[in-house]
Write a structure and sequence with these properties.
The chain is an alpha+beta fold. The chain contains eight helices and eight strands, in the order αβαββαβββββααααα.
Length: 270
């Protein structure tokens, strides 16, 4: 395992996948239970760092979270790669990204924003995630790559590299990043949701998600907004909302199971 692979594993691969081969193109961002450590927010058509940088700065200044990695997709978008210290269900990760979109990109046309992972409604609880970075694009030969914040504006017209990025340089960009503790994730999610705007009938980011995902397309209905004061309340609302796609309701129920089992034991229910 080289230095870049070590950094990718440290930040983005579910721990359960560690040691399952060294190939960078191996799809390991989602574990067998549909949990993830990588959360990707993309802005495309056109790629606009002036807009996306508001998210990059906001999560650090407003939410006191670690800086996400910045990437160019190799096709048409900028991406922010967030790292979780521990894997979480894909539905929770998607909800966090959607809350960021509403806070910082609320005026951006829906088809330009991609939120990954998302749940594949055709085969729940399977999730769809972003393509690996760095990687070549089969049709054009362009490369996706992580980029430094001060160089990000340079790629606005061409969000790709013509040549493979230097692996050590990519590793150096990732080495200074930290993963988001789960407690901080929950705190930030609670901060974001009270300010959320009304949720549309279909996820605003679905077209962009399909464009930047490994497989499949998504057409899910998201839960109606509410005054979620904590992540547990949010997940309960998702699970009990019969207008939400079944795949998301299943993911929410799975995320709540550990707490439910504890409550049963405390109540003497064997």
């Amino acid at each position: 395992m080289n230095r870049l692979q070590s950094e990718l594993q440290r930040l983005y691969l579910p721990q359960a996948s560690a040691g399952q081969g060294d190939a960078l193109d191996e799809p390991r961002l989602i574990d067998a239970d549909g949990r993830v450590r990588a959360m990707v927010l993309a802005l495309a058509r056109p790629a606009d760092w002036a807009l996306l940088s508001a998210v990059w700065r906001g999560v650090q200044v407003d939410l006191d979270l670690p800086a996400p990695a910045i990437a160019v997709s190799g096709t048409d978008s900028y991406q922010l790669w967030f790292s979780l210290a521990q894997p979480l269900p894909g539905a929770q990760a998607w909800a966090f990204l959607d809350a960021l979109r509403r806070r910082y990109l609320g005026d951006v046309r829906a088809h330009r924003v991609g939120l990954l992972p998302t749940v594949d409604a055709a085969s729940p609880p399977q999730a769809v995630h972003a393509r690996q970075v760095p990687a070549p694009q089969a049709d054009s030969g362009h490369w996706s790559a992580f980029v430094a914040p001060d160089l990000a504006p340079v790629f606005a017209d061409e969000p790709w590299l013509d040549l493979p990025p230097n692996p050590d340089g990519q590793a150096a960009l990732l080495a200074g990043l930290a993963s988001m503790p789960i407690a901080d994730f929950e705190r930030a999610l609670a901060q974001l949701h009270p300010a959320a705007l009304p949720v549309p009938d279909t996820p605003a980011s679905a077209p962009a998600e399909a464009a930047h995902a490994d497989v499949g397309t998504v057409n899910l209905r998201t839960p109606s907004p509410g005054p979620w004061l904590d992540p547990k309340r949010f997940l309960l609302d998702v699970m009990n909302d019969d207008t939400v796609a079944l795949a998301l309701r299943i993911e929410a129920a799975k995320a709540l199971l550990p707490g439910f089992d504890v409550a049963r034991r405390e109540n003497g229910d064997r």
